[in-house]
């Protein structure tokens, strides 16, 4: 487009005519004339700050340059040989870092695509960086989208980078000196630059967050651990300390995000974060949102000493494991004191009492930064050795179900523990410690102290645990009817907390409305086993239940319509 046509189009846009330009371009042209008093016919050269000013800008942006470096390098490798230039500018538009082909340095410098150039809109007119700073959104300013004639050969695609408090910190720009005419030729550049900006925000949040929980979130399980979409940094009570831009989508009301509690928007509290750590399969780390959506979560535990989480009474992972139960209080108080030592711990209790969960919480409160988890059943000495060879610094070694450890692996374990002081074993077992049958040397290397978890039927905090699990696993306002609650409180729970979780999951799935009733509860495992063992016929069950469908359904562990169907099939009818 000639200079004259470009100027004419700007005049038309100012006069209110739609010329087919993107609206954010027209808005920027208007600002250039009406706000900054610019003249499109002037051929202003690039604005370059002085060396002293550049030093100041770079110094202020030092942390961002550090966080962005590796993302910029990898982005530059991706576009190598295609004549793209990468600019990192600060929030004022001054280029503080630069990657370009040395062959074109003079051309790039002349066009202002270089260190120290100032691309703020009030100086450079409509341009990628300037428009991005004003709109705080990714933009492509392609060729004659630029306001001044000096820049109309450029194509610039820019994405904002936000600091963890939500303020604009920098702009990442990818530019071409000469590009194909269609604007859509830059769609790929847009996707590259927005992804790179997201990674820079993530790197920055991770670098800040070593003393806090970080919860990373992704729509798809494949990318969760390698390239998550969003992240929040949380304090010990689950309040947001920092976030990446993409995490704004969680807080849809548009208010301030810092200081908000994560359980306002997600069905989890900070006590649930250990369940989202990397030792769990990705598919199991589903986080449901209060609005009904679901995401995959990856929780990263604090790495540095966490003074705020030291005792179970002060909040944190240990206190979240129990409500008001005297036996659990004693176990957790003991665990809190032992957690920060390097004493090997043996945690015993029936299946599903929460031994693994307690071990993770102890790791969280302790000082070791590394965490390894192994199931002992079928563990080979080679796998054990290979896993322990990855250790680099103080590490917790969680050994699940130590009673199942094969003999040859037991010998290897004793040797490994002898050779590596940095490994702290936390073992779990369903067998009483005295009956474990481990060799004496290995026993002493594993059980410096023991912790014994009570079965759920003996705990006095069953009601609190039910409420917490329901809040975590069910939609917002789902609750238990008084009779369902009483029925659950009266059960024996041979499968302990695991069984409780499963019973609630079934009830939530079967419940039609918002109130879980007795008929939504699966039959107690014991009753099912007894019914099968006693070989009760359908008729006997019906008689025992006074022909009450709901009662029979519960006793058989099926729903009412199944009972009805079976009755019809068996030709049974209630006695008149
Ligand atoms: N205090 C708790 N509050 C809520 N849920 C819990 C609690 N403790 C454990 N759970 C849940 O119960 C289930 C079983 O817990 P965990 O795996 O820790 O038990 P375990 O004693 O190690 O079981 P096993 O001996 O069978 O391996 C898990 O899904 C866990 O999230």
Shape: elongated
**C-alpha Rg, in Å?**
31 Å
DSSP strand count: 17
* Oligomeric assembly: single chain
| Weakly predicted, low-confidence segments | 305-314
Number of individual domains: 4
CATH superfamily grouping of the largest domain = GAF domain
Annotated CATH architecture of the largest domain: 2-Layer Sandwich
Distance from first to last alpha carbon: 94 Å
Report the helical percentage: 25-40%
Task: Please tally the helical runs, counting DSSP H or I stretches of 4 or more residues.
Answer: 21
Q: Which structural class best describes the helix and strand composition?
A: alpha/beta
Q: Biggest β-sheet, characterized?
A: 5 strands, antiparallel
Q: What CATH first level of the largest domain would be assigned?
A: Alpha Beta
Quick summary of this structure?
38% of the residues lie in helices and 15% in strands. The protein has 576 residues and is α/β, with parallel strands linked by helices.
SSE blueprint and pairings:
Layout: H1 3-14, H2 23-34, H3 51-60, H4 62-78, E1 84-90, E2 95-99, H5 105-110, H6 121-124, H7 128-135, E3 139-142, E4 155-162, E5 168-176, H8 187-208, E6 213-218, H9 221-224, E7 230-234, E8 240-243, E9 286-288, E10 294-300, H10 326-339, E11 345-348, H11 355-365, E12 370-375, H12 381-389, E13 395-400, H13 407-419, E14 423-429, H14 440-446, E15 449-452, H15 462-473, E16 479-480, H16 482-489, H17 496-510, E17 515-516, H18 525-534, H19 538-544, H20 549-556, H21 560-570
Parallel strand pairs: 11-14, 11-15, 12-13, 13-14, 16-17
Antiparallel strand pairs: 1-2, 1-5, 3-4, 4-5, 6-7, 6-10, 7-8, 9-10
Helix pairs in contact: 4-8, 10-11, 12-13, 15-17, 20-21
The chain binds adenosine-5'-triphosphate (ATP).
Adenosine-5'-triphosphate (ATP) is lined by residues 275, 321, 349, 351-357, 400-401, 428, 430, 465, 469, 497-498, 501.
Keywords: ATP-binding, DNA-binding, Nucleotide-binding, Transcription, Transcription regulation, Two-component regulatory system
InterPro entries: AAA_lid_NorR, GAF, GAF-like_dom_sf, Homeodomain-like_sf, HTH_Fis, P-loop_NTPase, Sigma_54_int, Sigma_54_int_dom_ATP-bd_1
Protein name: Sigma-54-dependent Fis family transcriptional regulator
């Amino acid at each position: 487009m000639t200079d004259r046509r470009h100027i004419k189009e700007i005049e038309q846009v100012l006069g209110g005519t739609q010329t087919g330009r993107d609206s954010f371009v027209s808005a920027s042209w208007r600002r250039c004339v009406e706000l900054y008093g610019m003249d499109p016919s002037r051929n202003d050269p690039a604005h370059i700050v002085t060396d002293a000013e550049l030093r100041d800008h770079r110094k202020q942006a030092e942390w961002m340059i550090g966080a962005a470096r590796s993302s910029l390098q990898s982005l530059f490798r991706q576009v190598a040989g295609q004549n793209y230039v990468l600019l990192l500018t600060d929030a004022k538009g001054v280029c503080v870092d630069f990657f370009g082909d040395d062959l074109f340095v003079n051309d790039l410098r002349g066009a202002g695509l270089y260190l120290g150039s100032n691309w703020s809109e009030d100086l450079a007119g409509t341009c990628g960086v300037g428009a991005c700073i004003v709109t705080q959104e990714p933009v492509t300013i392609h060729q004659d989208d630029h306001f001044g004639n000096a820049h109309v050969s450029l194509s610039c695609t820019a994405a904002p980078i936000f600091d963890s408090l939500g303020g604009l910190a920098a702009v990442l720009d990818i530019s071409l000196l000469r590009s194909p005419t269609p604007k859509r030729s830059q769609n790929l550049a847009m996707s590259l630059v927005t992804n790179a900006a997201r990674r820079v925000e993530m790197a920055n949040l991770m670098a800040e967050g070593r003393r806090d929980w970080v919860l990373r979130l992704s729509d798809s399980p494949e990318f969760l651990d390698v390239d998550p979409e969003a992240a929040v940094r949380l304090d010990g009570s689950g309040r947001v300390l920092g976030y990446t831009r993409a995490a704004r989508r969680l807080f849809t009301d548009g208010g301030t995000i810092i200081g908000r509690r994560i359980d306002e928007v997600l069905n989890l509290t900070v006590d649930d974060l250990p369940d989202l750590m990397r030792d769990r399969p990705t598919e199991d780390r589903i986080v449901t949102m209060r609005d009904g959506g679901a995401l995959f979560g990856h929780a990263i535990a604090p790495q540095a000493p966490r003074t705020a989480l030291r005792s179970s009474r002060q909040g944190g992972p240990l206190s979240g494991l129990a409500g008001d139960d005297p036996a659990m209080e004693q176990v957790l108080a003991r665990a809190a004191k032992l957690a920060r030592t390097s004493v090997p711990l043996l945690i015993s209790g029936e299946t599903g009492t929460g031994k693994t969960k307690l071990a993770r919480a102890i790791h969280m409160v302790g000082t070791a930064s590394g965490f390894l988890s192994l199931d002992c059943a079928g563990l080979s000495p080679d796998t054990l050795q290979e896993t322990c060879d990855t250790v680099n610094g103080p590490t917790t070694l969680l050994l699940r179900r130590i009673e199942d450890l094969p003999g040859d692996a037991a010998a290897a374990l004793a040797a490994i523990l002898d050779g590596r002081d940095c490994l702290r074993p936390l073992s779990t077992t369903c067998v009483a410690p005295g009956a474990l049958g481990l060799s004496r040397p290995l026993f002493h290397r594993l059980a410096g102290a023991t912790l014994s978890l009570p079965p759920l039927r003996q705990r006095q905090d069953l009601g609190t645990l039910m409420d917490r699990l329901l809040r975590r696993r069910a939609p917002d306002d789902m609750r238990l009817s008084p009779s369902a609650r009483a029925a659950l409180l009266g059960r024996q729970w041979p499968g302990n907390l695991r069984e409780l979780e499963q019973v609630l999951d079934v009830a939530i799935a079967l419940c039609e409305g918002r109130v879980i009733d007795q008929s939504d509860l699966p039959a107690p495992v014991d009753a099912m086993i007894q019914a099968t063992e006693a070989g009760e016929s359908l008729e006997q069950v019906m008689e025992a239940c006074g022909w009450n469908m709901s009662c029979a359904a519960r006793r058989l562990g099926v729903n009412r319509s199944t009972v009805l169907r079976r009755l019809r099939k068996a030709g049974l009818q209630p006695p008149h």
